[in-house]
Every structure is written in structure tokens, then in C-alpha cells.
Write a structure and sequence with these properties.
Layout: H1 3-12, E1 24-29, E2 35-40, E3 43-48, E4 54-61, E5 64-71, E6 75-79, E7 82-91, E8 95-107, E9 110-119, E10 125-128, E11 131-137, E12 142-145, E13 149-150, H2 154-160, E14 174-178, E15 186-191, E16 196-202, E17 218-223, E18 227-233, E19 238-239, E20 242-243, E21 245-246, E22 254-255, E23 261-263, E24 268-279, H3 288-298, H4 309-321, E25 324-327, E26 330-333, E27 343-345, H5 354-362, H6 371-382, E28 396-398, E29 403-405, H7 409-429, H8 435-452, H9 468-477, H10 481-498, H11 517-534, H12 537-552, H13 565-568, E30 577-578, E31 586-587, H14 594-604, H15 607-619, E32 633-634, E33 655-656, H16 663-678
Antiparallel strand pairs: 1-2, 2-3, 3-11, 4-5, 6-7, 7-8, 8-9, 9-24, 10-23, 11-18, 12-13, 12-15, 14-17, 14-19, 15-16, 16-24, 17-18, 19-20, 21-22, 25-26, 27-28, 28-29, 30-31, 32-33
Helix pairs in contact: 4-16, 5-6, 5-7, 5-16, 7-8, 7-9, 8-10, 9-10, 9-11, 10-11, 11-12, 14-15
Length: 682
């Protein structure tokens, strides 16, 4: 137990954004033997199993734990704020475990727990699985595993259920993942019918006595008849009705067997965790309280440990110049290493439009007399992209062939946003001729607005959420009520779809078809822009919901790593973001919405959010090489998309540098400009 964590939690947790005041308390049940329950408003919401508070599997058959034995405490005592329960759990014919549980309230609805197992047998006990199991009543409860499982991943399941974890909540379903896979280490079950959520938070750790070299505790949810269990196990994992597999590859699982333990006589194993119950005012909001609880419990470290804002901006600008193309009438930023190929690409991975906005704010500090020219010429060139009647434009210019191609809502929406911000700043500074930019943005907005305002508009995914913000800005820039109507209609459409989490935010990337943080970011950016431009409170409520989904992809703890490229650099994971349930690696994408996290911290007077925002921006500069280049894929867990993927043991701790496309650089500059707009140095 770490007293500094306890002290911090007691002082600050009650004030976290999203936390709801509850009449909730810990209750010890039973007379001669004891159990645990968390009650809320007189009703039990989370409780130990009726078979016993403690459960241990004593055999391993068909690649899964079996032969469970149960036990319950027979002694109870109070030690200050701690309730301590003791007893033994008998393993027939082999001996007994001495077990001690200690519980202390942290705030209303949150309890800290430490479980201590000690094997008292005379021989080594083999094929053991230790556990923490708590029961939540209700059928078809909705699960939330940050970065992994969003209310069952229903959107991704419709497209391709084999690529991602899915969970319907029917008896027999299970979703169990390594603790180091979780950006926020908790699992939640929402009972929207009875308006509450139950959460199990873990303090992640490797497990003693493991057969595997890098075996950690696992965490997840299992559905039973009429109830579910939130669980911690000493290693077993699985999902989609497959035992002993991990989500190791982009399109499929890999085997991860033999995760039982061998425990020597006298060996002690401890596990620290937290239990939480919270209210659910509306369906789909149950995850919000544990998200902010997780930030407070883990208290991600200060940004001051990482390079300064000025160092980051200068380094990223130097690297951006290595991607600058200036050939006859062509001017812009190349998506790729110029020795490989030359494509000037707007939006998504290319972000050639981004410096046209960002460098207007940052250029003066770069001591480069060519900044103004590069901004003007790059955006002027992009205005030559063909636009169709729906506002969709070509986004990829092949420099060698002189041909435009491509075009999708994600890329177009992101490019339109940067054009809108560039026009806004260009008008203010009067350093730029914005007429071509304005004509291009008007044409795109006109087509998109007319399409959105049609009665049959029915967006496939949250990808079109990236159109909300530029339409809202353009409505103000051009005093155009049609753009405003379209922006509001789009915002209301996505709010109606996603706030209940029946269809979580999804589809915001082009290489995954499932729930993802980019989809959540599209909605978050759009909702917040609607609030700031039109000042209607409901948009702020929408923005908080989408922000909390974005936050759930942010790593709030420092994940210890095995030998490998990441350990070579003493990599620290706090503030990085998981990509999606399909692509389970970390990337720097979170820097892009870090300014909006800071802004929400200001609006809600939450210093915790502002501190996290600064960390998100600066920690992601790690792994930048002396030339300013950075790779895209950081393998914090058993997952990879490149390199030697023949064995699952070779994945965790790896780093793929081969895909250094321009977005990795552009997002740092773009976010830096938006911090500068706020007068903030992260």
C-alpha cells in the first residue's frame, strides 16, 4: 500500500469532473462468516459472491482454469479506517491459504482494498489461479474496458466481429485482458435500467509464480444468468468465446496459454484494487465517473519531466521542413519520406493543410523568413483540389504524376477545419491573401451543408463528425445561416446516436472499422465548437460526454516494459493514447485534442484536466530521434502490426518506426497553435 496515493485520493477525488455525489457505503455482510457489499441509496449494487468472498481455481484443464474452491472470512477487526477480514481457504488434500482482506472508504461510492494470499501447504501448489470476483446484478449489463471494449463494441461487431473484442452480455460471454493493455486500469458494468454503474479499478502488476516470462494479472467481465462478475485473475485471458487468447494482431487473436501459477510454501501474493459504485443519470453515462476516478487514482505525473514546449515545436518544425516540396507550381508538405514517394495529402495521415494554420501562430518564433511564403503557397496550392457538388474534394496529389485522387469525410472535414482556422487567423493578422482559401472553403461548405440538410442524410459512422467544427466556424466567418443549420443538425444527429452508447463513437479512421478515439474526437471537437460559436448549453454537455470517451483512451499510468526498443529509451507511457479496439498500440494522436482537454479544464475549473493536457502534449515527444523523426506504433502490450509477429512473446515492448507519415509532425504543430490561441504554454 502506498500512503501517498491514499492521501492524494482522500484530498482530491471527491472534486473530480463527472463524479456524482452518492449515498453509498461499504457494508460487511454475514455473522459467523463475512462478505462485502457496496450499497447505494439502500440497494446493494456490488457484492462478493454468495459462495464466498474468496475464490481460487485449483486445476488447469483444456487450457482454462477449473476446480474452483471458495472460502469466507471468519474474523473481523477494525484498524483505524481499515476494516480487516481474515480467514482460511482450504484446498482439499493439499493445505490452506491464509487470506486477509483490508477495506477502507476513500469517498462516497469508492473503497480501497488490499487482498493478501499466503500458501500454508507443505508442498508447492501447482495449476493455481488466484482471483478477485465481485457480482453485479442485472441481465445484459453494458461493459466498458477503456481502450478495448466500449459497451460491447456493437459498431465494430456489425462490420467484422473477428477483428475486435465483442461482448453482448449474454450468459457465457467473457472479456478478459492483460492489465498492461488498459490505458485506464478499470472495468465497468452499467445497469441503465436501475441507473447505476459498478466498477473494479486495479493497481496493475505482474504476478509471482507465473510460468510465462511476462505474465500479469488480467481484468475483465463475465456474464452469468441474471448477473455479471467483475474480475481480476492471476493471468487467464480471453475474449469472443475463446479461452487463452490475446488481441495480438490487427485482424486476429494469438494463443496465450499456460497462465496458471505455481505457488511455493509460505509464498505471499498481494493484490490492490478499488471498488466503485456510481449513479447513471442517463443511459451511456456510466463510464464517466470511473474515467475521472481513474485519473485521480493514478495521478499521471507532471509534464515537467519531458522536453519543453519550445523544444518540441522547434524540433517538429525542423522536421516539417524536410518534407517541404517546392517544384514549379507545386508547393506543400509531403506525407512521406521524400526518398520513398511524393504525395501532398490533406487530412488524416497527410495533414498537408495543417501547417497553413499552425505556422501562422508559431512562425514568428521559428526565425525563418520563409514561413509566411510557405503558409501562403501551400494553402494556395491545396485550393486547386477538385471539389464535387457534395463538397467532397480530392485530397491526395501525386507529385510525380500530377494527379489528384482520394476524398473521404475524415480527410475533408479535417482539411476544412484547418482552412477555416487559417482564414480566421489570416484575416486577423492581415499578412495573407485569404481570398482563394475562402472561395475553396465556401465551395466545400456549400456542398456539404446542402447534403447534410437533405432529409435522407444518414451518416455511416462518426467520421462525418469532422464536418461539424468547420461548418460552425464557417457560419461565423461568412455569416451564413445555412452552414449553421447544417452544423447544428450534424451535431444533434451524432448526439442522438452516441450519447446513449448504444452506438459508441466509431469510424474516425480509415484503417479500422470499429469504435475508436478518432471518432470520439470528431464528436468532441464538433460539440465544443458548437458550444463556443453558438453558446447553447446542451452542446457543452455533449462535449463532456465525447471528451470522456476520448480520455478513456489516454494512458494514466506508467506501464513497466520488458527488454526491447521502448525499454532502451526508458519509455514512459503516461499521456499517450491507445488507437482503437482493433489497433491496440499507442500513438501520439492525443496531442491533437490536448488543447481541448485544457479548455474543458478551464470551463469546469478542473486543474486535473489542465495538468493532464500538458502532460499529453509533452510526453508524446518521447522517441523523437536526433533528426526529428518519430514512428507511429508503440507496443505497450501484446500487440503489433509490423516486425516479427511469429510469437506473442516478441510483441510487447517493441516500436515500429517505419511509418513516419506527416501527421505525426503536423499534429504537434497544430496543437501548439491552439495552445497559443489560448495563451497557454503546456
Amino acid at each position: 500500500m502506498m500512503l501517498h496515493r491514499i492521501r492524494f485520493t482522500l484530498l482530491t477525488l471527491a472534486g473530480c469532473v463527472g463524479c456524482v455525489a452518492l449515498s453509498a457505503q461499504l457494508r460487511v455482510t454475514g455473522a459467523n462468516t463475512y462478505g462485502i457489499a457496496l450499497d447505494m441509496e439502500g440497494e446493494t449494487r456490488l457484492a462478493s459472491l454468495p459462495e464466498g468472498l474468496w475464490a481460487i481455481a485449483t486445476a488447469w484443464e483444456q487450457n482454462w482454469m477449473t476446480d474452483w474452491v471458495y472460502g469466507a472470512p471468519t474474523q473481523k477487526e477494525q484498524s483505524g479506517a481499515w476494516t480487516v477480514l481474515r480467514g482460511e481457504l482450504q484446498v482439499p488434500g493439499k493445505g490452506a491459504f491464509q487470506i486477509r482482506d483490508a477495506y477502507t472508504p476513500v469517498r462516497e461510492g469508492l473503497v480501497q482494498c488490499v487482498r493478501r494470499f499466503r500458501w500454508m501447504g507443505v508442498d508447492t501448489l501447482r495449476h493455481v489461479t488466484l482471483s478477485v470476483r465481485f457480482r453485479v446484478e442485472g441481465s445484459s449489463l453494458k461493459p466498458f474496458c477503456p481502450g478495448i471494449l466500449y459497451y460491447g463494441n456493437p459498431a465494430g461487431a456489425k462490420v467484422d466481429a473477428q477483428r475486435i473484442p465483442v461482448y453482448e452480455g449474454q450468459a457465457g460471454d467473457f472479456a478478459l485482458f492483460e492489465e498492461h493493455r488498459y490505458p485506464m486500469p478499470f472495468v465497468m458494468a452499467e445497469n441503465s435500467l436501475q441507473h447505476y454503474a459498478a466498477t473494479l479499478h486495479t493497481v496493475p502488476s505482474p504476478v509471482q509464480g507465473a510460468k510465462r516470462s511476462d505474465q500479469w494479472w488480467s481484468m475483465g467481465i463475465e456474464a452469468k444468468e441474471g448477473y455479471s462478475e467483475l474480475v481480476l485473475y492471476s493471468g487467464p485471458v480471453g475474449y469472443n468465446h475463446q479461452h487463452s487468447v490475446v488481441k495480438a494482431l490487427q485482424h486476429r487473436a494469438m494463443s496465450y496459454p499456460d497462465t496458471d501459477l505455481e505457488i511455493a510454501p509460505g509464498q505471499v501474493i498481494e493484490k490492490e484494487f478499488y471498488l466503485e459504485v456510481s449513479s447513471v443519470p442517463t443511459p451511456g453515462s456510466g463510464f464517466q465517473t470511473p474515467v475521472h476516478t481513474s485519473i485521480a487514482l493514478n495521478h499521471p505525473q507532471s509534464a515537467e519531466a519531458f522536453p519543453s514546449f519550445e523544444q518540441i515545436v522547434r524540433s517538429k518544425y525542423r522536421f516539417a521542413l524536410t518534407r517541404w516540396i517546392d517544384q514549379d507550381s507545386v508547393a506543400g508538405f509531403n506525407m512521406y519520406d521524400p526518398s520513398l514517394q511524393s504525395h501532398i495529402v490533406m487530412g488524416w495521415c497527410g495533414q498537408a493543410d495543417s501547417p497553413g494554420f499552425a505556422l501562422q501562430w508559431l512562425g514568428a518564433s521559428m526565425e525563418d523568413s520563409m514561413v509566411v511564403s510557405r503558409v501562403q503557397r501551400s494553402l494556395d496550392f491545396l485550393c486547386g483540389a477538385p471539389i464535387d457538388s457534395t463538397g467532397l474534394f480530392r485530397v491526395d496529389y501525386n507529385v510525380q504524376q500530377g494527379v489528384w485522387s482520394g476524398g473521404d469525410p475524415v480527410s475533408c472535414g479535417q482539411a476544412m477545419y484547418n482552412f477555416a482556422k487559417a482564414i480566421e487567423m489570416g484575416r486577423r493578422s492581415r499578412l495573407y491573401d485569404t481570398r482563394r482559401w475562402e472561395a475553396f472553403l465556401r465551395q466545400a461548405c456549400e456542398g456539404q451543408a446542402q447534403r447534410i440538410l437533405r432529409a435522407d442524410w444518414n451518416p455511416h459512422s462518426t467520421a462525418e463528425g469532422f464536418l461539424i467544427a468547420p461548418l460552425a466556424i464557417a457560419a461565423k466567418l461568412f455569416k451564413n445561416s445555412t452552414y449553421k443549420k447544417a452544423a447544428i443538425k450534424a451535431g444533434e444527429t451524432f448526439a442522438a446516436r452516441h450519447l446513449s452508447m448504444e452506438e459508441p463513437y466509431w469510424g474516425g479512421t480509415l484503417d479500422a472499422t470499429c469504435e475508436d478515439k478518432e471518432g470520439a474526437w470528431a464528436a468532441f471537437q464538433g460539440f465544443l465548437e458548437l458550444y463556443e460559436r453558438f453558446h447553447e448549453p446542451r452542446f457543452f454537455a455533449y462535449a463532456r460526454h465525447a471528451m470522456d470517451v476520448c480520455l478513456s483512451y489516454v494512458v494514466v499510468w506508467n506501464i513497466p516494459l520488458p527488454a526491447g526498443r521502448l525499454a532502451d529509451h526508458h519509455f514512459r507511457s503516461e499521456g499517450w493514447t491507445v488507437v482503437s479496439p482493433q489497433n491496440q498500440h499507442l500513438d501520439v494522436y492525443g496531442v491533437l485534442f490536448a488543447p481541448e482537454i485544457y479548455k474543458m479544464g478551464r470551463y469546469t475549473e478542473d486543474s486535473q484536466l489542465m495538468e493532464l493536457s500538458r502532460l499529453m502534449y509533452r510526453t508524446c515527444f518521447q522517441l523523437t530521434d536526433p533528426m526529428g523523426s518519430q514512428g507511429e506504433q508503440i507496443q505497450h502490450t501484446n500487440f503489433a502490426q509490423h516486425g516479427d509477429m511469429s510469437r506473442v512473446e516478441r510483441l510487447r515492448g517493441g516500436y515500429s518506426e517505419s511509418w513516419t507519415v506527416f501527421w505525426i509532425t503536423a499534429h504537434f504543430l497544430n496543437a501548439a497553435a491552439r495552445f497559443a490561441e489560448m495563451g497557454v504554454v503546456p
